[in-house]
Recover the amino acids of this structure.
C-alpha cells in the first residue's frame, strides 16, 4: 500500500481503489495491450524515486531521472502547472 512506502496518498493509474502497489506495478508491467519498454523503465524509476524520498518528492507525468520533481503538499494543490510545464516531460 502507498502508506507502507511512506506516501501519504497515491493517484491510481487504473483499477479499483485499494489495490496494492504490487498489483499496480504488475498491471503496468503486464498490460493487456502493446508494451513500451522505455516507458515501463521510466515508471519503475519514478516509483523508486518516490519510495526513496518517502513521499517527499512526486514525479509529474512524463518525468525522467534528472528532471524536475514536485514537492507534494497543500501549497501545490491547484498550482501544479506553475511548478511543472508540459514541455518538461519531453526531450
Amino acid at each position: 500500500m502507498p502508506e507502507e512506502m511512506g506516501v501519504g496518498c497515491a493517484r491510481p493509474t487504473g483499477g479499483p481503489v485499494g489495490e496494492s502497489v504490487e498489483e499496480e506495478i504488475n498491471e503496468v508491467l503486464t498490460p493487456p495491450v502493446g508494451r513500451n519498454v522505455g516507458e515501463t523503465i521510466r515508471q519503475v524509476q519514478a516509483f523508486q524515486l518516490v519510495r526513496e524520498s518517502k513521499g517527499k518528492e512526486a514525479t509529474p507525468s512524463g518525468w525522467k531521472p534528472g528532471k524536475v520533481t514536485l514537492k507534494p503538499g497543500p501549497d501545490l494543490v491547484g498550482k501544479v502547472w506553475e511548478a511543472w510545464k508540459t514541455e518538461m516531460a519531453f526531450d
Q: What stands out?
A: The two ends are 32 Å apart (CA to CA).
